[in-house]
Structure formats: structure tokens, C-alpha cells
């Protein structure tokens, strides 16, 4: 009976969202108290479950060995669920002020909380079927957030989002069915369910892996299936933050780690050369994302293409199949999430206070919004990978992973991409802080409800750079067991 407690952080925010649809709040303040209580309580529930070591798995509905809704808590799931839940709290408080000028706040927060429950479900999925189920729910829960404004452009982008997401999920489902036909087991097992199965047809396994990687890779913005992500910038900034930092793209990354190390296993992937062909797409993802970002004048779109490139770093760590590379990959999953959500919050604050969306419009804004722009600058330096920031630490391990496989070309690509990252982020900082002429400066910092999350997240960025062992040791304990 105790194992049913695992379900609380999955269903609690979803039930709370449905109840919110019925309740008529007397004021926005009461509504905000309700939402913040739900989101923070959910984190406490998760922590309580993690402290109780005996609460580890539950089969919610099991019809047969394929149709089995199964939840299991392991270290990888813990890393992902804590990252998502903590950043969700920051986004909640930021959204209270930001969404006042977007309208339809109640509807926004209903789907916002639904998405939280679905993301926890992905983190706690114990097998491929459950992961796939919640992966599909994630598309449905985030779709209303993407089309929030209801404009023609938003509806067009929403259609594109659905087409890409469901097409990728269809490929993933095909792979799941084929894997089940070979292994008769979809449970996530360290070193993979295929480790003790003789490989009679390595080409078939390679095909299945590529089909699944591309299928789940759609949400991870794998080039050439990435265009839905920049298009989704039509959504409000808090949604963009969640899409790029936590919920959608990181769920795609999480799924790819699951299939690579908990279904196939690194030994099997090396035998079938599964990483070789995928690495070509990964290199394209890193370089194309950076090159496309250079040409964007729209602030959010520049950050969107940046996300495509940075996700390529994480994918590179996955396919190199060694301990250093996967350590760097998981570190960058965490670091990129914190950095990118900070950058989006800063850009959102600029738009909220000034209505400016384009880089050429923000000349001198560093004097008007110094705290916001300094936070943007620190986060930009971290994303470039300049020491002693957290971005440097994760890229260091990725470089070690490349050298460990005797592939110096990957290190060169990382360095080149770092230069390109500087090329598309530093001009924003220079434009903001070095105007051609002094004007009458009027302070335009956002309200504290928006500014405090930005400042706290920036402090976390710096802290994780100075003290990476806080996360690093836990990540290394995950990696030692699966590579």
C-alpha cells in the first residue's frame, strides 16, 4: 500500500489543476497562493518519497508484459524530477507577474500544473511503455500552452508542434514494438535488457535504435527535426522557458538516455555501431544550431537556436558511450537547464517592461535594467563555457569523453561551437551595455516577483560553477552503474 505514495507527485498537480478549473477565486492573489502551494507541496512530496527508501516501484495497471503502467524510482529519475520540480517553482513565481499582460491566466496555470504532473510521470516511468504514454501526454498538455495567445501564427505553430511530436512518437512506438518482439521486456534495467540476448541480426538492432533515437530525438530538437522549437517561441516566455529548459526538450533527452543505457546498453551499442551514424546528426545539431542563432535578430529565436546547439552537446555525451562523456552530458542537462531558463527570464523581463523583442532595439538597456542584464551576462558567459562557470565544467567532461574515444574532432567541434556561442550571445551584451550616446536613464527593472527568480537562478549558475561536486558526485554514481 505504501508504494501508492509514488503516485502522489504525479497525480496531485493534475488533480489540483482540474479542481482549479472549477474554483472561482475571489482575487488573483488567492489564485496565486493556491498555485504556489500546489507546486511547492509537490516538491515536498517528492523529497518525502525519496527519503523513504522502501518506496521504489509500483505496477499501476498491468494487463500483460507489454501493456504495463509501471513506475520506478532510480537515480536518473531522481536527478530529472528534482531539476524539473525546482525550476517549476521559479517559473511559477515569475509567471504570476508576466502572465498579467498575456491574458487567460487561469487557463494557462491549469495546463501549467497538468504539465508538471506529466513531467514527474516521465521521470518516474519504470518501462518504455509508461514513458511513451506520458511522452504523448506531454504533447497534449503543452499544446494549449504553445497556442496560448490564440493568434493565427500561434495556431499554425501549434499544428506544426503536433505534427512533429506525434510523428516522432510514432517512430518511437514502432521501435518499442520491435524491441519487445526481441526481448519480451520493456523495463528499464542498468546496462540494458539486451545485454544477455544473443545478437543474431545486428543490422536489425541498429535500425531499431536509429528509429527510436530519431523518434524520441524530435523533442530533443535533433537536426533536421528541430524547426518546431524556434517556431514555438510564439508562446509566452514562461512556456518558452519550460519548453527549452525542462519539460519538453529535456524529456526528449531523458528518453534517449533511457533507450541508450537502460534498453540497449552501451556494450550492445558498441557492437552494432549504433553511435557512429547518430553522431553525424549530433554534429550537425551542434553546428547548425549555432550558425542559425548568429542570424537571428529576435531575442527569443536566437536563444531557441542556441538551445538546439546546446542539446547537441548533451546528445554528443550520450553517443560517445563512455563515463566521462555521459557525466558531461548529464551535467550539461542540469547546467543548461538553469542557464537557459535564466536567459529566457531576462529576455521576458525586457519584453514585459519595454515591449522590445529584437536585439537592435535594446541598445543601452543595460543602464535601464542593470540587474536583469548583468544576470543575462553571467549566464551567457556560463553558456559559452568560460571558467569557473558551470558551463565550463560540463563541457570539460564532454571534451574528456571525446579524447577518451580518441576522437579529437569532437573536441574541435566543441571549441568551434563555443566560439559561435560567444558570437551570438556577446553582441547582445555589448549592445545592451555600450550605447553610442548617453541618454536620460530611467530604471525599468521588473517587479520583484520576476526579478528575484532571475537573481536566484544566476546565483545557482555561479554556485554550480564554483562547487560542481554538489551535483557531480551524484551524477558519477549514476554513470558508474550504467557505462
UniProtKB/TrEMBL annotation:
Keywords: Cell membrane, Membrane, Oxidoreductase, Transmembrane, Transmembrane helix
GO molecular function, one term: NADH dehydrogenase (ubiquinone) activity
Primary localization class, coarse: membrane
Residue ranges of domain NADH:quinone oxidoreductase/Mrp antiporter transmembrane in the record: 125-421
GO cellular component assignments: plasma membrane
GO BP: any one term: ATP synthesis coupled electron transport
Transmembrane segments: 33-55, 76-96, 108-135, 161-184, 204-229, 241-264, 276-294, 303-321, 333-351, 371-388, 408-436, 448-467
Pfam family, one: Proton_antipo_M
Membrane topology according to the record: Multi-pass membrane protein
Record protein name field: Multisubunit sodium/proton antiporter, MrpD subunit
Organism encoding this protein: Caminicella sporogenes DSM 14501
